[in-house]
């Protein structure tokens, strides 16, 4: 009997929302040798329910990856009308290899933290909010875990404070 | 023997309730006639399992009336209105400094007194200062009366301490949890029979930690007493040297927001987690590698001993009272000068550095926990009750 290789996962280890950036450190788990081919990997962030997306290259060393995104990148520009409703918007985060960037949902790994023993992370692993401004749009940006232990970035219309500073 | 335990609220979740349930179950198992009386009852069933041989009753029922209950008649309405007036008035006998004072309004006090006067035989065990004071003043002197103290003397406010000094000598015995507390009470109550009987752990049959997971555990209400506001800065001091360790704090409470803010201030959101309530504390203890108690004060912190039954070494502030009774510094854990954050950090770092130390201390902790095994502790109660029956000249069996 051939055992199936464990599914390749992009697992969050640490999230550092500070100094005007969101830095994410994680590890690849499982997968086959070809999966772990270093190649070039990207963080693809997609506004939920829209086709707005952006990508940032990951720094990969062995199985560890890291990416640091400036806050203002999460403040969406156009299309007009702005996708930001009163409740704000959510960026869902994926890790995608260079050669799969065009494959849509098939070739991407949802970034999350599912291999540890803590469930209901959104209430336990809680991260600080920071405020960001881009083109006059001010937003509060906060990494959050979803009910499925995946990582998203919550952006809600900001109210006060200076750009890049942590909210009280 | 006929034994009655009087609790404030048998339907709550505190350590005292759990302890009394365990005691009552063991006593029933030994063939005694055991009843738990809850001063108030706000729900249908208690949270903890209770052996079916132990009867449970209540004095004041504060449950919402059932929707299908018949409409009250004139007399019932009159009584209800009178009860309501009494409920609005604060207690007259229980000192306002009693932490449970709010529960003892004039109506509750009257009903407890009425109950105490109705009981004339056997052993009556009361379980907190308010009930102890009421029992000392109003319970029938034919009863064998035993007061339990679950908090250390110094924690009680002045008015409660004065009432203790005045009324507790009327008891046949006063039971406290720690040796240090027994000394304190002896000074206040010369001539009163004082015994130290610790609470028993739930069970000694626990799965043991192998001390490999990089998890430190703390648990308790998120309240100033538990000192998590000192533990978080202490953890900050060690996290740079030990970035792969986590601190998991279990419990809920009013200080959650402040503690969360402290975690954010120290950028510990990847390392310190407010876990909330869990129904699987035993599994959580097994998964972790050591336990930390950062309290400002305690009675006898049972969770420390429960942790020891999982072979967890314990780092604890040497606060009044309890930790020094349980932990032998350097053997089964480490005792840190109270409120000394730097020393706490140093101990945590030492424990993280050394798996072998955790193994050795953990094995010793398991041995220490043995003296809190239910069979060991309950024998102490059995001996006390038997001796009181013998020496008091009072009858412990139900009157014919």
Automatic annotation (TrEMBL), chain A:
What's the name of the protein? Uncharacterized protein
Q: Which organism is it from?
A: Streptomonospora alba
From TrEMBL, chain B:
Keyword Transferase annotated: yes
- Transferase keyword on record: yes
Instruction: State the UniProt keywords alphabetically.
Output: Transferase
Q: InterPro entries this protein is in?
A: Glyco_trans_1
Q: Annotated Gene Ontology MF terms?
A: glycosyltransferase activity
Q: Taking every annotated instance into account, which residue ranges of this chain make up the domain Glycosyl transferase family? A: 204-366
Give the protein name, as stated in the record. UDP-glucose:polyglycerol phosphate glucosyltransferase
Q: What is the lineage of its organism?
A: Bacteria, Bacillati, Actinomycetota, Actinomycetes, Streptosporangiales
């Amino acid at each position: 009997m051939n055992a199936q290789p464990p599914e390749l996962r992009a697992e969050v280890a640490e999230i550092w929302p500070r100094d005007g950036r969101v830095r994410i450190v994680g590890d690849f788990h499982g997968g086959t040798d070809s999966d772990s081919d270093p190649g070039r990997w990207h963080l693809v962030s997609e506004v939920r329910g829209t086709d707005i997306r952006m990508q940032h290259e990951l720094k990969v060393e062995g199985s560890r990856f890291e990416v640091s995104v400036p806050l203002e990148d999460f403040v969406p520009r156009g299309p007009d009308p702005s996708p930001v409703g009163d409740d704000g918007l959510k960026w869902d985060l994926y890790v995608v290899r260079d050669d799969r960037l065009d494959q849509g949902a098939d070739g991407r790994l949802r970034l999350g933290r599912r291999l540890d023993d803590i469930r209901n992370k959104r209430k336990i692993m809680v991260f600080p909010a920071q405020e960001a401004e881009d083109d006059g749009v001010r937003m509060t940006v906060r990494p959050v875990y979803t009910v499925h232990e995946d990582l998203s970035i919550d952006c809600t219309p900001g109210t006060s404070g200076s750009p890049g500073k942590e909210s009280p | 023997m006929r034994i009655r335990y009087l609790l404030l609220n048998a339907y709550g979740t505190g350590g005292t309730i759990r302890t009394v349930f365990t005691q009552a179950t063991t006593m029933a198992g030994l063939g005694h006639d055991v009843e738990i009386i809850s001063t108030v009852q706000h729900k249908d069933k208690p949270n903890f399992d209770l052996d079916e041989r132990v009867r449970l009753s209540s004095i004041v029922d504060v449950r919402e009336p059932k929707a299908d209950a018949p409409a009250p008649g004139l007399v019932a309405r009159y009584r209800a209105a009178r009860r309501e007036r009494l409920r609005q008035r604060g207690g007259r006998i229980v000192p306002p400094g009693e932490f449970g004072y709010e529960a003892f309004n004039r109506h509750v006090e009257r009903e407890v007194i009425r109950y105490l006067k109705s009981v004339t035989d056997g052993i009556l065990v009361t379980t907190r200062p308010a009930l102890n004071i009421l029992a000392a003043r109003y319970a029938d002197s034919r009863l064998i009366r035993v007061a339990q103290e679950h908090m250390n003397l110094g924690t009680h406010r002045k008015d409660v301490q004065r009432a203790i000094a005045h009324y507790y000598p009327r008891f046949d015995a006063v039971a406290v949890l720690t040796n240090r507390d027994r000394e304190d009470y002896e000074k206040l109550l010369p001539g009163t029979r004082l015994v130290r009987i610790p609470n028993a752990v739930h069970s000694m049959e626990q799965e043991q930690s192998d001390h490999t997971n990089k998890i430190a555990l703390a648990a308790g209400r998120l309240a100033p007493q538990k000192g998590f506001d000192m533990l978080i800065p202490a953890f900050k001091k060690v996290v740079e040297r030990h970035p792969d360790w986590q601190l998991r704090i279990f419990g809920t409470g009013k200080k959650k927001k402040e503690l969360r803010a402290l975690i954010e201030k120290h950028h510990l959101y990847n390392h310190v987690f407010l876990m909330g309530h869990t129904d699987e504390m035993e599994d959580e203890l097994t998964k972790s590698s050591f336990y930390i108690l950062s309290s400002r004060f305690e009675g006898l912190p049972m969770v420390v001993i429960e942790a020891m039954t999982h072979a967890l070494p314990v780092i604890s502030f040497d606060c009044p009272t309890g930790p020094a009774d349980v932990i032998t510094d350097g053997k089964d854990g480490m005792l840190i000068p109270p409120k000394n954050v730097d020393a706490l950090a140093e101990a945590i770092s030492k424990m993280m550095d050394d798996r072998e130390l955790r193994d050795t201390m953990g094995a010793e902790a398991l041995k220490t926990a043995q003296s809190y095994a239910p069979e060991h502790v309950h024998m102490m109660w059995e001996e006390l009750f038997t001796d009181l029956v013998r020496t008091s000249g009072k009858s412990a069996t139900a009157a014919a």
